[in-house]
């Protein structure tokens, strides 16, 4: 399958273009798949509920040196789960990816034996919260941003794995490659939201780059609590919608400086001292609630089957 070539391609994408999360593979006896050993990707290891232990069925990073600087853990354990909110049947026959699992990843039914593929989708979907948070920061810090209802860029997750039934009614608005979609995310910005950040950032001439990027995503993820599962040198973090939302709700200006400011600037320590004087979260809680609603109900998916016919075969 050319796993080494795949790893090299993923490394280029994950270092230059967009954050790339890769399943480490299933079957602890086989070890981490060669496709996942790209230093720039974020590997995802499946755990039991709440990240208590690495799933028996999941591969795991080496206990000493790993090729990655950050390793993510996400729940991939088989559970009965719940039906969709509509009480209708889940659509799709993919072992790793049904409509129910995509729309409600935290409560979806997962068949035995579970594994790192679904854990990777959960982790990928949870990045929506970071994306929308940075989009809000970008809007709040833009000089000519109006106050009131503002639009930001939608979150699109590209997921390569087993196919699903795209005709499922529950997915009518959720596919990024179909015409019928939800509109752009909209948030209500108060004058106080913008003036507070303006006063702090522009008033103190702070160099802040909150735009969504690979380094920023990794900086946000490394602000999660440490979650040691091995003796590796990597930063180990447990990822779920719950952990990310909890982090964003308590995200203060000091945290914002740490993830989005240049630590090499001679004024960096001064900026942190100024930020420490403000004890309130960087973004109002109601805006984080709106992010939670969008990511849980309107984010977009583009699913590419790993069993698709080769391109040149279609040409023939």
Short description:
With 316 residues, the chain is α/β, with parallel strands linked by helices.
Spatial strand order of the main sheet: 1-2-3-7
- Largest sheet, if any? 4 strands, parallel
β-strand amount: 5-15%
Instruction: Give the structural class.
Output: alpha/beta
Q: Outline, from the CA principal axes?
A: globular
Strand tally: 8
Low-confidence stretches: none
Span between termini: 22 Å
- State the helical fraction: 25-40%
Rounded to an integer in angstroms, the radius of gyration calculated over CA atoms is 20 Å
Mean pLDDT across every amino acid position: 86
Number of distinct helices: 10
Q: What's the order of the H and E elements? A: HEEEHHEEEHHEHHHHEH
Features:
8 strands; single chain; alpha/beta; four-stranded parallel beta sheet; 10 helices; globular; 316 residues
Word description of this protein:
This protein has 316 residues and is α/β, with parallel strands linked by helices. Helices cover 34% and strands 12% of the residues. The chain has 10 helices and 8 strands. It has helices at residues 3-16, 99-103, 116-141, 191-201, 214-221, 241-249, 253-260, 268-276, 285-297, 311-315, and strands spanning 21-23, 42-47, 70-75, 148-151, 156-161, 186-189, 235-238, 300-305. The strands form 3 sheets. It has a 4-stranded parallel sheet. The longest helix has 26 residues, at 116-141. The two termini are 22 Å apart.
């Amino acid at each position: 399958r050319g796993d080494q070539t795949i790893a090299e391609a993923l490394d280029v994408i994950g270092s230059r273009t967009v954050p790339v999360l890769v399943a480490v593979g299933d079957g602890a006896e086989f070890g981490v798949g060669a496709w996942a050993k790209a230093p720039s990707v974020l590997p995802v290891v499946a755990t039991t509920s709440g990240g208590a232990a690495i799933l028996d069925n999941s591969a795991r990073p080496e206990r000493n040196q790993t090729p990655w600087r950050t390793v993510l853990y996400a729940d991939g354990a088989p559970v009965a789960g719940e039906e969709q909110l509509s009480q209708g049947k889940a659509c799709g026959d993919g072992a790793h990816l049904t409509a129910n699992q995509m729309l409600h990843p935290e409560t979806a039914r997962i068949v035995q034996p579970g594994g790192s593929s679904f854990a990777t989708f959960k982790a990928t979907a949870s990045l929506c919260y970071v994306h929308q948070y940075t989009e809000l920061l970008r809007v709040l810090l833009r000089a000519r941003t109006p106050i009131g209802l503002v639009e930001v860029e939608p979150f699109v997750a590209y997921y390569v794995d087993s196919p699903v039934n795209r005709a499922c009614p529950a997915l009518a608005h959720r596919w990024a490659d179909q015409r019928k979609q939800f509109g752009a995310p909209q948030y209500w910005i108060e004058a106080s939201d913008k003036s507070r950040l303006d006063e702090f950032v522009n008033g103190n001439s702070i160099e802040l780059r909150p735009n969504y990027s690979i380094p920023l995503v990794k900086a946000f993820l490394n602000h999660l609590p440490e979650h040691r599962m091995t003796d590796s040198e990597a930063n180990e973090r447990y990822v779920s919608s719950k952990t990310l939302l909890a982090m964003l709700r308590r995200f203060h200006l000091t945290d914002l400086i740490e993830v989005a400011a240049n630590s090499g600037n001679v004024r960096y320590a001064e900026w942190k001292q100024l930020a420490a004087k403000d004890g309130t979260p960087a973004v109002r809680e109601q805006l984080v609630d709106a992010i939670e609603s969008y990511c849980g109900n309107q984010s977009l998916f583009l699913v590419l089957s790993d069993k698709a016919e080769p391109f040149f075969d279609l040409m023939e």
